[in-house]
Amino acid sequence: MAVFQYGYAVLFNVDDADVEAYLDIVRRHASGLLTEMRKDDCAVKEKHLLTEEIKGGPDYIVLKTLDTNSIRIIGSVLGQSIAMCISLYSTLVFFFSSEDLGAVVIKS
Questions:
Q1: Cα of 99 vs its chain's centroid, Å
Q2: Are 63 and 53 in contact (CB under 8 A)?
Q3: What DSSP state is assigned to residue 39?
Q4: Looking at the whole model, is its pTM more than 0.70?
Q5: What is the dihedral of CA 21, 22, 25, 31, to 10 degrees?
Q6: pLDDT band at 104 (very low <50, low <70, confident <90, very high)
Q7: Backbone angles phi, psi at 33, to 5 degrees
């Protein structure tokens, strides 16, 4: 399990029945928990005969070699992508929550 400072936890090779137990550990030690929690599933597979180093889709990643460095990179990229989504969402909520800014946007 890797936990990132911007509120994202990546769990590898964890049975669905055990996920909540791991997340409870994170909750006990985390501060400033997010009010909203979303879960995404992404399959990671190793295929030695793959012609390129990595191939992916919306919910899967196929690697030529699965090692600890690959897991670190995948976890970091997944964590950063969700952090960007949260940041964009927060910016939009802030921007459109102000009636004055909303009126300026509507008049433009």
A1: 31
A2: yes
A3: -
A4: no
A5: -120
A6: low
A7: -60, 145
